[in-house]
Amino acid sequence: MALDVPFSRMNGLGNEILVADLRGRSDRITPAAAVALAGKAETHFDQIMAIHDPRTTGTDADIVILNADGSEAGACGNGTRCVVLYLGRQTGAQEYLLQTRRGILEARALPGGLISVDMGVPLFDWQDIPLAHAIDDTNDAPVDSGPEGAPVLSRPALASMGNPHAVFFIDRGVQTVDLARHGAEVEHHPLFPDRVNVSIAQVTGPTALTMRTFERGVGLTQACGSAACAAAVLAARTGRAGRRLTVTVPGGDLIVEWRDDGHVMMTGPAELEWDGFLDPVTGDHRRAAQESAA
Ligand SMILES: N[C@H](CCC[C@H](N)C(=O)O)C(=O)O
């Protein structure tokens, strides 16, 4: 097998992304290759964004998203901004239509370097998140983590951004809660047949929220764009904040706006680290001879 798939190591607010370019070929990155790449220090990643030839006329590319454990994700906000940066280096274009499992997303490079993605319309029905069964109120789900009778995290609000999210709103302790432990527990709670991305969030003002995320299929990450969207939308939906928020995650800030037409716009940076080539079957890789400047 050959190391013939070009890829770029990028990040979106520290969310570690490999953008792999499989256009013009019919194969895919195997789950085994993803796990192998995730296991090496140099290519350790949270998500691979695999770019394939467009499936729909008028779109620029079809994107397959893989988590570090080789599972597939329906949405990745930070990775989508990285795809725009990747394509923009080649085409110079500012606007893209990218097809994902979640649907066709409109993304745009803004003057000044930030990238904005239309993350679509959030879903709140239990079947859409999805949940194993109906519950009374997806804003107040019967899910706890921690000691019986004195849970550390209790009753999250739920949404799908094309992938499932549970957001625990807490008054303090975003930086101190043991999210590695509680996130792993909630990720596998029986209410979530497809598992769930787990966030803790504190609303710090009518236009500001600070949060951390334990990602399904990955673990703790520096940033999770779709979780930031879910938290912002759920903060507005539960009357905790307005519809345009600065969302602070460990890696930095995202701007999230839940527009009146229901679409969620997410704006933030994307950064190039270096370029290379990978084998989509084994996950072997090498860096390109000429290291790119970020
Ligand atoms: N980091 C991504 C989300 C990945 C979600 C993934 N862990 C899943 O749903 O399985 C983001 O920026 O939106």
TrEMBL record:
Keyword Cytoplasm attributed: yes
Highest taxon of source: Bacteria
Positions bound to substrate: N15, Q47, N67, G77, N78, N163, N197, E215, R216, G225, S226
Enzyme Commission designation: 5.1.1.7
Subcellular location per the Swiss-Prot or TrEMBL entry: Cytoplasm
Keywords: Amino-acid biosynthesis, Cytoplasm, Isomerase, Lysine biosynthesis
Site (Could be important to modulate the pK values of the two catalytic cysteine residues): H165, E215
Keyword Chaperone: no
Catalytic-site annotation from UniProt: C76, C224
Pathway this chain belongs to: Amino-acid biosynthesis; L-lysine biosynthesis via DAP pathway; DL-2,6-diaminopimelate from LL-2,6-diaminopimelate: step 1/1
Gene3D superfamilies: Diaminopimelate Epimerase, Chain A, domain 1
Function in brief: Catalyzes the stereoinversion of LL-2,6-diaminopimelate (L,L-DAP) to meso-diaminopimelate (meso-DAP), a precursor of L-lysine and an essential component of the bacterial peptidoglycan.
Subunit structure: Homodimer.
Similarity remark: Belongs to the diaminopimelate epimerase family.
HAMAP family: DAP_epimerase
Name of this chain's protein: Diaminopimelate epimerase
Organism: Aureimonas altamirensis DSM 21988
Gene name linked to the record: dapF
